[in-house]
From TrEMBL:
GO terms for cellular component: extracellular region. SUPFAM superfamilies: Invertebrate chitin-binding proteins. This is Chitin-binding type-2 domain-containing protein. Residues 89-145 form the Chitin-binding type-2 domain. InterPro entries: Chitin-bd_dom, Chitin-bd_dom_sf. GO terms for molecular function: chitin binding. Keywords: Signal. The gene is LOC108074972. PROSITE patterns: CHIT_BIND_II (PS50940). Residues 1-19 form the signal peptide.
Length: 204
């Protein structure tokens, strides 16, 4: 574990740079303990000006299969493999409820003015847009692997778990990372062959 002074310096750096790579809580936007990555437990707080701060608290010995846990137990626990999802930015593109592309436990309520309210299942399960409830087993495909592929900007893909949703990959120049913007087809339409199609044109 780091001495407090170094933790403090790290905190200052994170706030100064304000890039989500140094400040994962900018992406998480939920107060409390959160695994920042496989080896670091952190704490997310909103400061007086309303911006998110990441406090890195604890490093796990991943070489001995101890990985960060923020479910039930906060800290480092022995795990066969790290289950901490790789996080990234989310911005609302339209009103509605959208799955978080990175973490199956999370979802986003987007207002018609595209204000995002991030939510997280508290029962340790994943969120299903089909049932609009926290019912996905954590060992389901949707929770175990990334549900999007972004290899170039402008790439479009369907959301396998719920064909009403799709994503468009964009390039965040600051971090030189591609990330998916989540979108939803119009009522009744589903995403097929790179487009939202009405029910009568669906392949059967
Ligand atoms: C994990 O996150 C912490 C805090 O953001 C960072 O200092 C550390 O380098 C990260 N570790 C890895 C392996 O990415
Ligand atoms: C992403 O691409 C890989 C390799 O082409 C493929 O195996 C995987 O199924 C794809 N995942 C999704 C969610 O489309
Ligand atoms: C993102 O955009 C920057 C600047 O236009 C470019 O240099 C970089 O190669 C792009 N990255 C990807 C992954 O497309």
């Amino acid at each position: 574990m780091w001495p407090p002074l170094q933790v403090f310096i790290l905190l200052l750096l994170g706030v100064a740079v304000q890039a989500s790579e140094q400040n994962p809580c900018l992406d998480v936007r939920t107060a409390g303990f959160v695994c920042l990555n496989c080896t670091t437990l952190g704490y997310c707080v909103k400061d007086a000006t309303g911006s998110w701060e990441t406090i890195s608290m604890l490093g796990c010995q991943s070489e001995h299969s101890f990985y960060c846990s923020d479910e039930g137990t906060y800290g480092c626990t022995w795990q066969a493999q790290c289950r901490v999802p790789k996080r990234g930015p989310f911005t609302c593109q339209q009103g509605g409820v959208f799955p978080d592309p990175y973490d199956c436990r999370r979802y986003h309520e987007c207002s018609d003015l595209q204000v995002d309210t991030p939510r997280q299942c508290t029962n340790g399960a994943g969120y299903s847009t089909l049932t609009e409830s926290c019912v996905l087993p954590r060992d389901s495909e949707q929770c175990l692997s990334a549900q999007f592929n972004c290899s170039r900007s402008g790439q479009v893909g369907g959301w396998n778990a719920d064909t009403r949703y799709f994503y468009v990959c964009v390039n965040e120049t600051a971090a030189n990372n591609l990330y998916p913007l989540m979108m939803k087809c119009r009522e009744g339409f589903v995403f097929e062959n790179n487009a939202c199609v009405p029910p009568e044109l669906r392949n059967v």
